[in-house]
Amino acid sequence: MKIEIWSDIMCPFCYIGKRRLEAAMAQFEYADKLQIEWKSFLLNPDMKTDPEQNTLEYLAATKGWTMEQTQQITQQVVEMAKGEGLEYQMDKTVVANAKNAHRLLQLAKSVGKGGEMKERLLKAYFTEGANIDDKDSLLNFASEVGISNVSAQECLNSNKFEDKVDQDIAESRALGVRGVPFFVLDRKYGISGAQPKEVFEDTIKKAWGDYVKENPILDIAGSDTAAACDVDGNCE
Asked: Which one of 3.40.30.10, 3.40.50.150, 3.30.1330.60, 3.30.479.30 gives the CATH number of domain 2-205?
């Protein structure tokens, strides 16, 4: 069963939601049969990369908040993240356009490394204070998750996979997604936002129940090594 997740790398609740989904999956008996697909979403597609400005400064300037107000508001998010085992360094986060990072994510998806790349980019942005629009940094992240330098260079030196990013965004609009993270389970159930773990657990069970009814030939009752007899009378 597929779980599609629309999220942005610079969305603090997207990383929190990722951890809560993972916690719910860890409690699910058939977690190995769930397929996660990361979808691109750009909260601010026109953002200008500015390595000299951090997110707190950007929020204060664009929202009209004082720095004290900004710190108080973001500290709530930091504490929420801490509850999921994440360490946010909001004063170090670099204001950057995420389009190139999303193109790299699309490359990673094409070679079966989407989950690893998503995690690496989120950690780079929120914990390490990396510039996710810096080419050299992106090349290093790609290498760390096992993507060839040649493929990463080809992607970042062109507009390759831009159409995939745009396609994900268009698809989100067709589904009525207005904010992220947004989780779609088997194209039947949706979860909006970084909901509590229990919401993910309940929704996964509901979606899985429907999925199994529609796919009765699935081997979900046990492993291939379990004792059993086959139709030819062989028992082992």
From this structure: 3.40.30.10
At residue 215 the predicted structure's pLDDT band, cuts being 50, 70 and 90, is confident
Q: Which two tokens stand for residue 30?
A: 């058939």
Q: Are 154 and 134 in contact (CB under 8 A)?
A: no
Cβ atoms 74, 59 nearer than 8 A = yes
Residues 6+ apart with CB under 8 A from 115: 36, 38
Mean pLDDT over each residue of the chain, to the nearest integer: 93
* Dist. CA 114–CA 159, nearest whole Å: 19
Q: Does residue 212 sit in helix, strand or coil?
A: helix
Coil, helix or strand at residue 117: helix
The pair phi, psi for residue 203, each rounded to 5°, is -70, -40
pLDDT of residue 40: 98
Specify the length of the chain in residues.
Answer: 236
Cα–Cα dist 143/124, whole Å: 14
Longest CA–CA separation in the chain, Å: 76
